[in-house]
Amino acid sequence: MSTDSPKLDLRCFTFIDILQPQTAAFLATISRGYHPLVGQAALIVEVAPGMDVNVVTDIALKRTSVVPGMLVVEREFGMVELHASDQGQVRAAGEEILSNLNLVVEDRLRPRVVSAQLITGITGYHSMITNRMRHGNVIHEGQALYVLETHPAGYALLATNEAEKAAKVEVLEFLSVGAFGRVYLGGGEEDLKEAAKAMGAALEGVTGRENPGPSAASLT
Question: Domain boundaries in the chain?
Fold first, then answer.
Protein backbone atom coordinates (compact mmCIF):
# COMPACT_ATOMS: atom_id res chain seq x y z
CA MET A 1 0.00 0.00 0.00
CA SER A 2 1.33 3.42 -0.89
CA THR A 3 1.99 5.81 1.99
CA ASP A 4 1.71 8.84 -0.33
CA SER A 5 -2.05 9.14 0.23
CA PRO A 6 -3.36 11.96 2.45
CA LYS A 7 -3.19 11.33 6.17
CA LEU A 8 -6.49 9.94 7.42
CA ASP A 9 -8.30 11.16 10.50
CA LEU A 10 -7.75 8.66 13.33
CA ARG A 11 -10.89 9.11 15.41
CA CYS A 12 -10.76 6.08 17.71
CA PHE A 13 -7.95 3.63 18.38
CA THR A 14 -8.23 1.52 21.51
CA PHE A 15 -7.35 -1.93 22.82
CA ILE A 16 -9.60 -4.22 24.82
CA ASP A 17 -7.38 -6.50 26.91
CA ILE A 18 -9.94 -9.16 27.90
CA LEU A 19 -13.40 -9.26 26.36
CA GLN A 20 -16.00 -9.81 29.07
CA PRO A 21 -18.81 -12.38 28.65
CA GLN A 22 -21.71 -10.03 27.90
CA THR A 23 -19.62 -7.71 25.73
CA ALA A 24 -18.30 -10.62 23.67
CA ALA A 25 -21.76 -12.15 23.37
CA PHE A 26 -23.23 -8.82 22.29
CA LEU A 27 -20.57 -8.43 19.60
CA ALA A 28 -21.33 -11.95 18.38
CA THR A 29 -25.01 -11.01 18.15
CA ILE A 30 -24.51 -7.93 15.99
CA SER A 31 -21.31 -8.74 14.09
CA ARG A 32 -21.36 -9.92 10.51
CA GLY A 33 -17.77 -11.08 10.55
CA TYR A 34 -15.90 -13.64 12.67
CA HIS A 35 -17.38 -13.57 16.14
CA PRO A 36 -15.09 -12.86 19.10
CA LEU A 37 -14.87 -15.19 22.09
CA VAL A 38 -14.83 -14.41 25.80
CA GLY A 39 -11.31 -13.62 26.98
CA GLN A 40 -9.94 -12.61 23.61
CA ALA A 41 -8.23 -9.27 23.06
CA ALA A 42 -9.62 -6.74 20.60
CA LEU A 43 -8.70 -3.56 18.78
CA ILE A 44 -11.22 -0.94 17.69
CA VAL A 45 -10.24 1.53 15.00
CA GLU A 46 -12.46 4.31 13.67
CA VAL A 47 -11.32 6.57 10.84
CA ALA A 48 -12.54 9.26 8.50
CA PRO A 49 -13.32 9.23 5.65
CA GLY A 50 -15.19 5.96 6.00
CA MET A 51 -13.72 4.23 2.96
CA ASP A 52 -10.24 4.35 4.48
CA VAL A 53 -11.21 1.66 6.98
CA ASN A 54 -10.72 -0.83 4.14
CA VAL A 55 -7.04 0.12 4.02
CA VAL A 56 -6.79 -0.23 7.80
CA THR A 57 -8.31 -3.71 7.64
CA ASP A 58 -6.06 -4.78 4.77
CA ILE A 59 -2.91 -3.85 6.68
CA ALA A 60 -3.92 -5.72 9.83
CA LEU A 61 -5.09 -8.90 8.12
CA LYS A 62 -2.05 -9.21 5.83
CA ARG A 63 0.50 -8.71 8.59
CA THR A 64 -0.99 -10.43 11.64
CA SER A 65 -3.31 -13.30 12.56
CA VAL A 66 -6.18 -11.13 13.87
CA VAL A 67 -9.66 -11.61 12.43
CA PRO A 68 -12.38 -8.99 11.88
CA GLY A 69 -15.62 -9.10 13.81
CA MET A 70 -17.19 -5.84 12.64
CA LEU A 71 -16.45 -3.81 9.54
CA VAL A 72 -18.74 -0.83 8.99
CA VAL A 73 -18.18 1.62 6.15
CA GLU A 74 -20.21 4.82 6.20
CA ARG A 75 -19.63 7.87 4.04
CA GLU A 76 -18.13 9.93 6.84
CA PHE A 77 -16.81 7.31 9.30
CA GLY A 78 -15.51 3.76 9.06
CA MET A 79 -14.99 1.33 11.93
CA VAL A 80 -13.33 -2.07 12.26
CA GLU A 81 -13.10 -4.40 15.26
CA LEU A 82 -10.23 -6.90 15.18
CA HIS A 83 -9.63 -9.68 17.70
CA ALA A 84 -7.48 -12.70 18.52
CA SER A 85 -6.70 -14.98 21.43
CA ASP A 86 -3.09 -13.81 21.31
CA GLN A 87 -3.02 -10.31 22.78
CA GLY A 88 0.40 -9.80 21.22
CA GLN A 89 -1.06 -10.24 17.74
CA VAL A 90 -3.75 -7.68 18.46
CA ARG A 91 -1.18 -5.15 19.62
CA ALA A 92 1.00 -5.97 16.61
CA ALA A 93 -1.98 -5.26 14.35
CA GLY A 94 -2.30 -1.84 15.93
CA GLU A 95 1.39 -1.13 15.49
CA GLU A 96 1.27 -2.19 11.84
CA ILE A 97 -1.72 0.04 11.16
CA LEU A 98 -0.07 3.08 12.71
CA SER A 99 3.31 2.46 11.11
CA ASN A 100 2.01 1.89 7.59
CA LEU A 101 -0.22 4.96 7.72
CA ASN A 102 2.47 7.23 9.19
CA LEU A 103 0.46 7.72 12.37
CA VAL A 104 1.15 7.52 16.09
CA VAL A 105 -1.30 6.59 18.81
CA GLU A 106 -1.45 10.21 19.99
CA ASP A 107 -3.08 11.12 16.66
CA ARG A 108 -6.34 9.60 17.88
CA LEU A 109 -9.10 11.73 19.34
CA ARG A 110 -9.50 11.56 23.07
CA PRO A 111 -12.92 10.24 24.07
CA ARG A 112 -15.48 12.74 25.28
CA VAL A 113 -18.54 11.91 27.37
CA VAL A 114 -21.37 13.83 25.71
CA SER A 115 -24.13 12.85 28.13
CA ALA A 116 -24.86 10.44 30.97
CA GLN A 117 -28.19 9.53 32.54
CA LEU A 118 -29.10 7.37 35.53
CA ILE A 119 -32.82 6.65 35.80
CA THR A 120 -33.92 4.71 38.88
CA GLY A 121 -36.97 2.54 39.37
CA ILE A 122 -38.10 2.46 35.75
CA THR A 123 -41.73 1.67 35.03
CA GLY A 124 -42.99 -1.49 33.35
CA TYR A 125 -43.71 0.25 30.07
CA HIS A 126 -40.30 1.92 30.10
CA SER A 127 -38.63 -1.45 30.59
CA MET A 128 -40.69 -2.99 27.77
CA ILE A 129 -39.92 -0.29 25.21
CA THR A 130 -36.23 -0.40 26.16
CA ASN A 131 -36.18 -4.17 25.73
CA ARG A 132 -37.72 -3.85 22.29
CA MET A 133 -34.67 -1.95 20.99
CA ARG A 134 -31.87 -3.90 22.71
CA HIS A 135 -29.74 -6.75 21.31
CA GLY A 136 -28.29 -7.83 24.67
CA ASN A 137 -29.82 -8.67 28.04
CA VAL A 138 -33.13 -7.34 29.33
CA ILE A 139 -34.08 -4.80 31.97
CA HIS A 140 -36.96 -5.33 34.40
CA GLU A 141 -39.50 -3.01 35.97
CA GLY A 142 -38.06 -1.36 39.07
CA GLN A 143 -34.43 -1.65 37.99
CA ALA A 144 -32.22 1.32 37.16
CA LEU A 145 -31.24 2.32 33.63
CA TYR A 146 -27.92 3.96 32.77
CA VAL A 147 -27.23 5.56 29.39
CA LEU A 148 -23.84 6.92 28.34
CA GLU A 149 -23.11 8.82 25.13
CA THR A 150 -19.55 9.06 23.84
CA HIS A 151 -17.67 10.81 21.06
CA PRO A 152 -16.20 9.29 18.95
CA ALA A 153 -18.52 6.29 18.78
CA GLY A 154 -15.91 3.53 18.96
CA TYR A 155 -15.10 4.21 22.61
CA ALA A 156 -18.55 2.90 23.59
CA LEU A 157 -17.14 -0.62 23.28
CA LEU A 158 -14.28 0.14 25.67
CA ALA A 159 -16.72 1.71 28.14
CA THR A 160 -19.05 -1.29 28.04
CA ASN A 161 -16.28 -3.80 28.63
CA GLU A 162 -14.94 -1.82 31.60
CA ALA A 163 -18.42 -1.49 33.09
CA GLU A 164 -18.88 -5.24 32.97
CA LYS A 165 -15.52 -5.77 34.67
CA ALA A 166 -16.39 -3.42 37.51
CA ALA A 167 -19.94 -4.31 38.53
CA LYS A 168 -22.86 -6.65 38.17
CA VAL A 169 -24.76 -5.01 35.33
CA GLU A 170 -26.90 -6.07 32.40
CA VAL A 171 -25.50 -4.99 29.04
CA LEU A 172 -28.61 -4.03 27.09
CA GLU A 173 -27.11 -2.35 24.05
CA PHE A 174 -24.10 -0.46 22.83
CA LEU A 175 -23.68 1.45 19.60
CA SER A 176 -20.09 1.92 18.51
CA VAL A 177 -20.54 3.22 14.96
CA GLY A 178 -21.60 6.63 13.68
CA ALA A 179 -21.38 10.19 14.93
CA PHE A 180 -21.82 9.23 18.59
CA GLY A 181 -21.57 6.02 20.60
CA ARG A 182 -24.11 4.93 23.21
CA VAL A 183 -24.09 2.43 26.05
CA TYR A 184 -27.29 1.15 27.71
CA LEU A 185 -26.92 -0.71 31.01
CA GLY A 186 -29.48 -2.08 33.46
CA GLY A 187 -29.28 -3.27 37.05
CA GLY A 188 -29.19 -2.01 40.61
CA GLU A 189 -28.52 1.66 41.28
CA GLU A 190 -25.29 1.10 43.23
CA ASP A 191 -23.94 -1.35 40.68
CA LEU A 192 -24.58 1.13 37.90
CA LYS A 193 -22.81 3.87 39.84
CA GLU A 194 -19.77 1.61 40.17
CA ALA A 195 -19.94 0.84 36.47
CA ALA A 196 -20.12 4.56 35.68
CA LYS A 197 -16.97 5.21 37.71
CA ALA A 198 -15.12 2.46 35.85
CA MET A 199 -16.26 3.76 32.46
CA GLY A 200 -15.22 7.29 33.37
CA ALA A 201 -11.77 6.18 34.53
CA ALA A 202 -11.19 4.12 31.39
CA LEU A 203 -12.21 6.93 29.05
CA GLU A 204 -10.25 9.52 31.01
CA GLY A 205 -7.15 7.34 30.71
CA VAL A 206 -7.15 7.40 26.91
CA THR A 207 -4.57 9.88 25.64
CA GLY A 208 -4.66 11.67 22.30
CA ARG A 209 -5.44 14.97 20.67
CA GLU A 210 -7.98 17.30 22.16
CA ASN A 211 -11.64 16.63 21.38
CA PRO A 212 -13.46 19.96 21.77
CA GLY A 213 -17.16 20.08 22.42
CA PRO A 214 -19.69 20.01 25.28
CA SER A 215 -19.20 17.27 27.84
CA ALA A 216 -21.36 15.82 30.59
CA ALA A 217 -20.82 17.46 33.96
CA SER A 218 -20.93 14.11 35.76
CA LEU A 219 -21.28 10.44 34.89
CA THR A 220 -23.68 9.92 37.77
Answer: 9-107, 112-204
